[in-house]
Amino acid sequence: MKSIVDLKSTTFESVKTDLEAWVRAKPENARWLDFYEGSAGQTVIELCAGLAAYDAFKIGMAERELTLDFAVSRTSYLMRASALGYPVNRPSAPILRLTVSSPDPYVLWEKEEPVGMLFDQYKLALTSSQAIGSGTITVDVYVGCWKEYSEVSGKNEDFARIYIEDEHVENVLENRFFMTVGGNNVPVTHLAEELDPTNALVKTTIEGIFLQFGDGVDGRRLAAELIELSYLSTPGRAALDPGKGAVATSDIRLNFGTVTDVQILFPGYRPDSNEKIRALAPAYYSTRRAMVSKYDHENMALSYAGNLVSACASPSGNGVPCEVDIAYLFDDEHLMTAVEKDLFVQYLNEFKMAGETIRAIDPVRVGLDIDMTVVIDDGETDPDISLQIQEIVEERTMKLGGVFYMGEIVRKVSQLNGVLRVYLEHPSSDYDLDCREYLALDLFDVKLTGNDKIQIQHDPSNEGYIES
Q1: Picking from 53-57, 101-105, 438-442, which range would have the lowest pLDDT averaged per residue?
Q2: 414 and 422 in contact (C-beta within 8 Å)?
Q3: Distance (Å, rounded) from C-alpha 246 to C-alpha 263?
Q4: Distance, CA of 329 to CA of 238 (rounded, Å)
Q5: 310-354 pLDDT, tens per residue?
Q6: Long-range Cβ pairs for the range 252-255 (8 Å, 24+)
Q7: CA 240-86-191 angle, 5° bins
């Protein structure tokens, strides 16, 4: 049966035209006298056209949500990442080492009991139960709190799953997520291929996690049993935002003693952003979780928790066979602590080749000063030219390794609308960066001038151009 409306018609006007043509083609079309605007018949046609256009829009948006490139909903990103086997990172708790002067007598403090507050906003919890005595002591604390959950499962079936509604479940599972089923410890994993008859899979959702059980072969089978959880719930790196990444002793209020010194052992990480999932999930999938090539190493490093914006792998600078240096770069340019490096290398060791050794290498910042004069058309008044030039430069910064070609910058700027000529004064040469180096913009000085307001003479040192 032929469709009344062309299946390619998706707009109001095109559907309306199709409906009017259908009415006119009917044998009894002479009885339809309501083709004029505002008539009852035309109103019916326009209503149908509006509904069809709306449905077409909804279908189009739904199709866009199926792809990482055009998705908007957070749920769509999580679904596509799951389909590609990419384990979306949740927040990771900052770890603080506190030196405390405690007047209290000896007491055993259980880790489930909060020990204080950070910025009077975030709870602090011991990393493990600890004896607290009088005098000067040192304790390690998570920014977060331990939570417990239990339920009696009524599901006696293959591949059952349990939903935990808590978007702050700690990303690191080892020593921070404990589960017993029927009184027996059940290990958990982020990776589906690691499922065996004894464990369960943890999957990130929009507002919590799913605990995915199996059939007794791929994952432990769940029967009518008591499930008990003890896990760390944390705001992640966001907890350090009030102090702009730093913590003073006065920012901490303990339930015992006074803090005399604080050290950040691990700064914590934020959950994966939609942008990170969009860029990284396909590359992660292509590695098949095995670091073979240089790009496999870099993509696996970028999949680590936190806002890593660049990674670069190279043979070890020590000249040791089968040793690989992986340089990292965070969006805030912070250097990893010793604890961070241990966790980073531990994560990568899960995917390395047999006999390979991984080393985490600190990045080296190379400051970039941009000083140029840009001649614009006298009639050009676009205030965004400077911003566009800065975006061109910043696209090539905050990346480890590679070559920064100044000629490419000049060419890109010259192609902007309204730009007539570009005179670059600094830098005067390209930057050839090794694997651990990256450029960061220190100075951005762009002078915009009209074509009749500048005279240029050649620089005798042949290092660019100068304004006369």
Answers
A1: 101-105
A2: yes
A3: 9
A4: 19
A5: 999 999 877 788 999 999 999 999 999 999 999 999 999 999 998
A6: 252/96, 252/98, 252/116, 252/117, 252/118, 252/124, 253/116, 253/117, 253/120, 254/98, 254/100, 254/115, 254/116, 254/124, 255/114, 255/115, 255/116
A7: 95
Contact 251, 229 (CB under 8 A): no
Residue 465: predicted pLDDT:
46
Tell me the per-residue pLDDT of 268-313, one tens digit each, with 9 for 90 and over. 999 999 999 999 999 899 888 889 999 999 999 999 999 999 999 9
pLDDT digits (tens, 9 = 90+) for 209-223: 999 999 999 999 999
Phi/psi for 72 (5° steps) reads -120, -40
Q: How far apart are CA 452 and CA 375, in angstroms?
A: 9
What's the rounded Cα separation, in Å, for the pair 34 and 362?
Answer: 76
* CB neighbours of residue 375 within 10 Å: 20
How many beta carbons lie within 10 A of that of residue 445, not counting itself?
Answer: 11
CA-nearest of 139, 114, 110, 138 to 125 is 114
pLDDT > 90 in the chain, percent: 63
Among 161, 154, 169, 156, residue whose Cα is nearest residue 195? 161
Per-residue three-class SS string for the chain: CCCCCCCCCCCHHHHHHHHHHHHHHCCCHHHCCCCCCCCHHHHHHHHHHHHHHHHHHHHHHHHHCCCCCCCCCHHHHHHHHHHCCCCCCCCECCEEEEEEEECCCCEEECCCCCCEEECCCEEEEECCCEEECCEEEEEEEEECEEEEEEEECCCCECCCEEEECCCCECCCCCCCEEEEECCEECCEECCHHHCCCCCEEEEECCCCEEEECECCCCCCEECCCEEEEEEEECCHHHHHHHHCCCCCHHHEEECCCEEEEEEEEECCECCCCHHHHHHHHHHHHHHCCCCCCHHHHHHHHHCCCCCEEEEEEEECCCCCCCEEEEEEEECCCCCCCHHHHHHHHHHHHCCCCCCCEEEEECCEEEEEEEEEEEEECCCCCCCCHHHHHHHHHHCCCCCEEEEECHHHHHHHHHCCCCEEEEEEEECCCCEEEEEEEEEEEEEEEEEEEECCCCCEEECCCCCCEEEC
Stretch 228-238: mean pLDDT = 96
Q: Is the pLDDT of residue 457 over 90?
A: no
Can you tell me the distance from the alpha carbon of 101 to that of 103, in angstroms, rounded to the nearest whole number?
A: 7
